[in-house]
Amino acid sequence: MIISYGIYFQIENHTNLSLTVYVQNVEAGNLTPGDIIKVKNISGTLSYILIEAKNVQGDIIFSKNFSTSELYDDGWKVVIPPKQ
After folding, report:
1. pTM for the full model?
2. Is 31 part of a structural domain of the chain?
3. Helix (H, G, I), strand (E, B) or coil at 60
4. What is the DSSP letter of 70?
5. Could you read off the pLDDT of 41-57 as tens digits, one per residue?
6. What radius of gyration do the chain's Cα atoms show?
């Protein structure tokens, strides 16, 4: 069973790359450098939310499972940091 939760948060692209963002393996949108996307109504379990970002070549630039308490503590904001 898939459940949709009324959680919403934002994802910020702090890289110098154009990225496609996935939340729970579902495409959430495209971000150019400095862009912000708002994500809502997440499907799946409520304990962890997988957020990934891929570059135009399809390479994973960012991948992290966030707990809802982490998102809450971070003000419901995810920052994709510059690539080291």
Report:
1. 0.86
2. yes
3. strand
4. H
5. 776 666 788 999 999 99
6. 12
Residue 62 carries which side chain, given as an amino acid letter? F
Specify the amino acid at residue 20.
T
Please state, in angstroms and rounded to a whole number, the distance separating the CA atoms of residues 49 and 29. Answer: 16
Number of domains in the chain: 1
The CA distance from 71 to 58, in Å, is 26
Query: Taking phi first (over 0 means left), then psi (-120 to 50 degrees means alpha), and beta for anything else, what does residue 44 get?
Result: left
Q: Which amino acid is at 10?
A: Q
Interval 13-29: pLDDT, tens: 999 999 999 998 999 99
Tell me the CATH number at 22.
Answer: 2.60.40
Residues contacting residue 3 through CB under 8 Å, at least 6 positions apart: 43, 44, 45, 46
Q: What is the residue range of 12's domain?
A: 4-70
- Residue type present at position 81: P
Beta bridge partners of residue 39, listed in sequence order:
9
**Within-domain flag for 82:** no
